[in-house]
Amino acid sequence: MSHTLGIRQAQKQKTRQAFLDAALALLEEQSLSSLGLREVTRAVGVAPTAFYRHFRSTADLGVALVDEALGSLHPMVRTTVATAGAERITRAVRLISDHVAAHPAHVRFIARERHGGVQPVREAIRDQLARFAEEVGAELAKDPEAEGWSEDDLLMLAHLYVDQMLITASLFLETLESPEPSEAERERVARIAARQMRLISLGRQHWLD
Amino acid sequence: MSHTLGIRQAQKQKTRQAFLDAALALLEEQSLSSLGLREVTRAVGVAPTAFYRHFRSTADLGVALVDEALGSLHPMVRTTVATAGAERITRAVRLISDHVAAHPAHVRFIARERHGGVQPVREAIRDQLARFAEEVGAELAKDPEAEGWSEDDLLMLAHLYVDQMLITASLFLETLESPEPSEAERERVARIAARQMRLISLGRQHWLD
DNA sequence: AATTCCGGAGAACAGTTGTTAACTGGATGA
DNA sequence: TCATCCAGTTAACAACTGTTCTCCGGAATT
After folding, report:
1. Of the candidates B199, B134, B149, B145, which has an alpha carbon nearest to the alpha carbon of residue A204?
2. At which residues is the DNA-binding region annotated (chains A, B) (predicted)?
């Protein structure tokens, strides 16, 4: 049952999205704690006071951006990790590479604000990453290699993988930021990331020795 | 041959250090790209224009902070990694834990600005971390387990360790930031970090299989 | 002893910031 | 049809920003 929005609410969501888009663009060259309210409204093309109709503060906007950047990514990560065998690493690296290429500003925002100067945003990102770790852990538990593993150890391993994914995403980003983004450079990062994940997987296989 | 500084240069270095200290304190609750020049001078207790006698801009000050935070850490990391056997991981975790406890603001600054909004600072941090990776790689090469390893693979492993150290440092930091910092919480982080490093070491031992 | 140097102070500049209050006009619901 | 709602506007506020130029007084140099 999809409820058709009134033309009023539709317009509101439209300008709200315009706020998110404009902020994300501005955040490519600064961090959230220096993002001004007027700066955003100027970029959108509305009066400064219009901002308050959508967000309490720029920190509030930042939390909304976290949801936009990570919210829809959970199913993708889940199905990718669900892949069995050696293919899993290949697909994971490709997922990251493609996602960074498709949404570089989102990735930059998350990497930047994960340890940034705005507490509510840091917390929102931390919660989302913890969710990723739990989901990855749940998928890893289905592997035959997970036999004999404690819940704690599985979560430790899952966090290792999630952190590694974020580091890899950040490296792909630097690849795009370089003055002459070359496919060769991207491939180099992909190969290093794959080898690091393979090394971690090897450690996992011999954990119970 | 230690050259005694004139009372003029000595005074200059003193206020310069005051700038660094004040900035570091202010950066506990914001990021560098929102740090104002007047804000810093006000905290130091000097006129705004005095700032220019020491730094071109706040970005310049940030680069100086990177050197202060990471510059003197290289020998410590080197000797810690030089430790052989199972003791290496224990010492590494303790080094990180102690360093975070002793210089929390420095660690926070590095974690925050590594992906922050100020390019020159990002580059300075990236260069320093690359140096750490090279040094760690050089120490790892001395291990008997390094036999048959390519230069590339050693560097890949070293980067994995360095990134892992930074993640661990950041987790120790969160431990201190909690409303009621408990020794139990710190110990929990230490145990997880040690297990993650042990898992990586296991992967290393079976890499050439 | 006389001169140069230079870290810091003071005042002023135009431009920016977040937030408030009162208002407008088209969509909404009775 | 008419009263209500509400996203966005306009105007104004005090407070703040980075930067320039001019000046001072003590250290450094000759």
Report:
1. B199
2. 36-55
